[in-house]
Amino acid sequence: MQKIMIFSNMYPTQKHPTYGIFVKNQVELLRSKGLDVEVVAITDPAKGKLPNLKKYLFWFIRSMMHMIGDKRRTTLTHAHYAFPTGVLSLIGKKLFRLPYVVTVHGGDIDKMAAKNEKIRAATQKILQGADAVIVVGDRLKKDVIERFGVDQKRVHVMSMGVDKEVFKPMQKSKARQELNIPENEKTLLFVGNMIEAKGVLELVDAFKIIQEKYPVAKLHMIGSDKDEAFMHIFAKRLLDNDVRIIHHLPMPQKEIAKWIAAADVFVLPSHHEGFGLVALEAMAVGTSVVGTDVGGLSYLLSDGAGILVEPKNPQSLAEGLIQALSEPEDKRCNVMQRTAANHSYEVIAKRLMTIYEEIEKTRMKKS
Questions:
Q1: Whether the Cβ atoms of residue 340 and residue 283 lie closer than 8 Å to each other
Q2: What pLDDT digit, counting tens, does each position of 56-89 carry?
Q3: In which domain of life is the source organism classified (predicted)?
């Protein structure tokens, strides 16, 4: 295998350390296995019509130049997100006969393809033209096969994996000591973008109920607050409920792992979720997870691995959180560790490299 070219419309930098961190983690994993991986990605999360137009145009030009320059050395391209990223891989296949893999993360199917018929048609063409389609959850597999007509033999269910060197069981008392969290505090933790789709408004409403039962409870939220309009709505909801939360800006994964270890419960009240990688990371640390019964979370938290609640329902969310807070800490430990082991980096790397190798073998037979 010569070179794998990765396209992504999200990739972290020192300035924006969590922007597409899951893509970077997989890239570094592949490199650690000896693969030659080149990344052509967008690293600026700035929004707005003009900034978006500029960064996507520049990214398209850079991607084309990389494919033209390295087409003879490149084994295949791998696009993260079907649209718009997959357009690059589709062009690469048509112009330079480069086979490609697409990883569907959820938003590209649930939201992007639903914007209009042209994007949906382009998404379908990208998925049907791919040599392999990776979906991060079972529900997405069903969607890709039934809604977009992709041959199920080319669809693989595979999460982005959990780094068990970072997200691993830690002593709660030690984590709390380092983070200055009192031992008697009931600590709830949310990690994700501060946006409506992550269910943070319902979380505020639910936390109001939690505080009535646990007066010393605290809600810590780690995530980007770049959507100023929504943050005004969020602040008003806090005032209306007379609730205070502790908000932390995005931080390195090792710090997030420490916060997860210090928490009594990890909560992910999303309205939709392709997989819910951060919930898996919490499970790997050993912290109980409460999540909404949507998308990949429905599968990830099934069979006692976590507590599933109704989406967009603060009362159901509060009941799930109270259940988690009242359970023995080790009740779900074994099933959580088994689930995390099934998604370890070693397992993911082996499966991903097998997909690459099969595509390369097929290409060699055709040439």
A1: yes
A2: 999 999 999 999 999 889 999 999 999 999 999 9
A3: Bacteria
Span between the terminal Cα atoms of the chain, in Å: 15
Same fold, 3-161+344-366 and 172-342: yes
What is the separation of C-alpha 244 from the centre of its chain, rounded to a whole number of angstroms? Answer: 27
Bigger pLDDT: 330 or 285? 285
**Residues written for the chain:** 367
Residue 246 pLDDT level (bands cut at 50, 70, 90)? very high
Mean of pLDDT over the chain: 94
Which pairs count as long-range contacts for 125-128, CB under 8 Å and 24+ apart, including other chains? 125/90, 126/79, 126/82, 126/83, 126/86, 126/87, 126/89, 126/90, 126/102, 127/82, 127/86, 127/102
**pLDDT given at position 110:** 84
Domain residue ranges of the chain, discontinuous segments joined by +: 3-161+344-366, 172-342
Give the DSSP letter of residue 344. B
Torsion sign (Cα): 321, 326, 331, 333 = positive
Q: Topology of domain 3-161+344-366, per CATH?
A: Rossmann fold (3.40.50)
- What value does the mean pLDDT take over residues 151-168? 95
pLDDT given for residue 359 in this prediction: 95
Please, is 140 exposed, middle or buried when counting C-beta atoms within 10 Å of its C-beta (0-12, 13-18, 19+)? buried
Please report the pLDDT score of residue 1 as a whole number. Answer: 67
Q: Nearest-CA neighbor of 23 among 127, 124, 136?
A: 136
- Give yes or no for a contact between 73 and 91, defined as CB atoms under 8 angstroms apart: no
Query: Is 25 in contact with 37 (CB distance < 8 Å)?
Result: no
172-342 is a CATH 3.40.50.2000 domain: yes
What sign does the CA torsion over 332, 334, 339, 345 have? positive
Sheet strands (E) in the chain: 3-8, 36-41, 74-80, 100-104, 132-135, 155-157, 187-191, 218-222, 246-248, 265-268, 288-292, 307-309
Closest CA to 29 of 4, 2, 1, 66: 4
Sheet holding 3-8, edge to edge: 36-41, 3-8, 74-80, 100-104, 132-135, 155-157
Query: Which residue, 282, 310, 314, 287, is CA-closest to 298?
Result: 310
User: In DSSP terms, which residues pair with 80 in a beta bridge?
Assistant: 8, 103
Residue 80, CB half-sphere, CA atoms under 13 Å: how many? 24
